[in-house]
Amino acid sequence: THKDVAWVSYPGLPGDKYNALARKYVPKGAGAVFTFGLKDGYDAGVKLVSNVKLFSHLANIGDTRSLIIHPASTTHSQLSAEQLKQAGAGTDVVRLSIGIEDVDDIIADLDQAIS
Questions:
Q1: Among 77, 115, 78, 113, which residue's Cα sits nearest to residue 96?
Q2: In the β-sheet with 67-69, what is the strand arrangement from edge to edge?
Q3: Which of 12, 17, 35, 87 has a 20 to 30 Å separation from 29 between CA atoms?
Q4: What percent of the chain has pLDDT over 90?
């Protein structure tokens, strides 16, 4: 519900298009990876990744540490705007893999970095 977040994609959310599949195939939970879009696009994504303190800026997933990536400025930076969109890595996209840190610390870090 953050004012700077345009959308969230996570199969564990009731409104997500993959929620029914997640409930069927992963009934204990949809996992720790999710994607969201920032209203201010590319620059906001770069700023967010640059300002987090708790998150590690890495492209892998499944670590015990919380990880963050802005694909448009890193792993997918060679693609055109249209290719980014087709790859699900638009300029507004940020991906998170949540680790074992305290949830309040994770939320506070994201909030301060977005702001």
A1: 113
A2: 5-9, 33-38, 93-97, 67-69, 56-57
A3: 87
A4: 77
What 63-68 contacts at long range (C-beta under 8 Å, 24+ apart), as own/partner pairs, is 63/97, 63/99, 64/99, 64/100, 65/99, 65/100, 65/101, 66/96, 66/97, 66/98, 66/99, 66/101, 66/106, 67/96, 67/97, 67/99, 68/94, 68/95, 68/96, 68/97
Nearest CA-CA partner of 9 in 75, 72, 95, 67:
95
On whether the pTM is more than 0.85, the answer is: yes
Contact between residue 79 and residue 89 where contact means Cβ atoms under 8 Å apart = yes
The predicted-structure confidence for 73-110, as pLDDT tens digits, reads as follows 988 989 888 898 889 889 999 999 999 999 999 999 99
